[in-house]
User: Fold this.
Amino acid sequence: MVRKAIILSAGQGSRLLPMTEALPKCLLPLSAMSVLEWQINRLVDCGISEIVVVTGFYAEKVEERLVALRAHGINARALFNPFFKVADNLGSCWLARDEMSEDFVLLNGDTIFETPVLGKLLAEAAAPITLTIDCKEHYDSDDMKVQLNGDALTAIGKDLPLDAVDGESIGMLCFKGKGPALFKNALEAAMRQPQGTSSWYLRVIGAIAREAHVGTVSINGLEWGEIDYPMDLENARRLTRGWLVRESQTGNERRPAKAASA
Assistant:
């Protein structure tokens, strides 16, 4: 089973200013917990026992939260990205490449999800690299769209032709077997290019898909959200309120990580 996760949480979230003026996006409060704590709870629910959080903007605040979580038995630690102001998330992945020596899950720091989302990815991921996707009726310019051949990824990007879009990436991937080494090698090659520091890691995934099989798992019908704008934050708070109600109705006890709220 996959036991490790890497969360990319180095960014500020400038589109959420002034809420993120002195607080990284991953620590914004959602119902009982911060974004990061919701993520960590779901990871722990699915058997992830080692969590690495790539930090940057106000890293010390994230590190303080992780110390509190470790006091509750959560194995989560920080990895500081000193280049977060000048590099996109490809740089954070490259910085964390030494953590990619085993099977792992990679998660964007602004993606929240109910536990079955990650559970489905872990249960169905069969390729060395597997991308989690969802489908909807309409896509906007900010969606990370995907094209598929069956369940195989053929292209990924925000500017794909809408008439050829088969879904969108939710910002969660699973790397198994040869997948970690394949990704690490591709990261090294991408960072040697002139545009490396300004690139997204999903462009690397798209490049890999042109040479090797990158699988996908659809979580259509399950609940998740990406937090980029204030309206996304309100939607995330609505979702998490619903999850808390659902958990209370089923009698699920709150895990220690949930006790360390924002």
